[in-house]
């Protein structure tokens, strides 16, 4: 990666992501790890799909009532980690999350499969369940119903504004190439990190 060629880390990330999407055999090319700061002080991580790049934001979706939703509400500082096996590249992004608007959330929800929409409507994600059989029955009944599913109010998403982005290219020599972009009021500062 030439710093002069791609001075904006968002553009660099978009290029790397595109290269990954067109070469990977993964069924989930936009998969990443979202890390949040837990309400108990412990970090929490989970895989999810990056929905969109909308400069300068990265957008993810999910339940506002889930653990991640509650944690982001309490502390919007989050990180995203991408690992791409084929290109031996990793990207780590730290930033702050904000809610997306209802209209945007409606669009993302409408693009989900009926199964995903149904689960989002019936389930309180991450909460303790007393009777899984009852949930399965309600799920089957909803799937058989041809009525369009309206987005529940608790399902939405976040746009993440990056503050730090680190690009890592693994080398067989172990002299990995690491470039860190840090955002300030003056723009992006670029530093090279040791392997």
Question: Any overview of this molecule?
Answer:
This protein is of the alpha+beta class. Helices cover 28% and strands 37% of the residues. Strands 1, 2, 3, 4, 5, 6, 7, 8 and 9 form a 9-stranded antiparallel beta sheet that branches. A hairpin with a 2-residue loop joins strand 3 (52-54) and strand 4 (57-63). Helix 4 packs across helix 5 (132-144). It starts with 8 loop residues before the first helix and ends with a strand.
- Strand percentage lies at 35-45%
Uncertain segments? 1-5
Series of secondary-structure elements, N-terminal to C-terminal: HEEEEHEEHHHEEE
Question: Structural class, from helix and strand content?
Answer: alpha+beta
How many beta strands in the DSSP annotation? 9
Tally of alpha and pi helices: 5
Major pleated sheet: 9 strands, antiparallel
Q: What is the average of the pLDDT values?
A: 93
Please give the share of residues in helix. Answer: 25-40%
The Rg value, from CA coordinates, equals 19 Å
- The first-to-last residue Cα distance is 15 Å
Report the principal-axis shape. Answer: elongated
Give me a quick take on this structure.
By secondary structure, the protein is of the alpha+beta class.
């Amino acid at each position: 990666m030439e710093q002069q060629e791609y001075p904006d880390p968002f553009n660099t990330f978009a290029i790397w992501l595109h290269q990954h999407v067109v070469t990977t055999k993964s069924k989930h090319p936009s998969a990443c790890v979202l890390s949040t700061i837990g309400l108990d002080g412990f970090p929490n991580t989970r895989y999810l799909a990056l929905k969109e790049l909308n400069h300068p934001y990265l957008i993810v979706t999910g339940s506002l009532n889930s653990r991640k939703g509650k944690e982001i509400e309490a502390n919007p500082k989050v990180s995203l980690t991408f690992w791409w096996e084929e290109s031996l590249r990793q990207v780590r992004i730290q930033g702050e999350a904000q809610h997306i608007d209802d209209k945007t959330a409606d669009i993302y929800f409408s693009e989900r499969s009926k199964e995903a929409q149904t689960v989002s409507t019936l389930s309180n994600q991450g909460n303790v369940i007393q009777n899984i059989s009852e949930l399965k029955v309600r799920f089957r009944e909803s799937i058989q119903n041809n009525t369009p599913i309206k987005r529940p109010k608790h399902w939405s998403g976040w746009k993440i504004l990056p503050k730090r982005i680190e690009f890592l290219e693994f080398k067989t020599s172990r002299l990995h190439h690491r470039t860190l972009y840090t955002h300030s009021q003056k723009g992006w500062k670029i530093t090279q990190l040791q392997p």
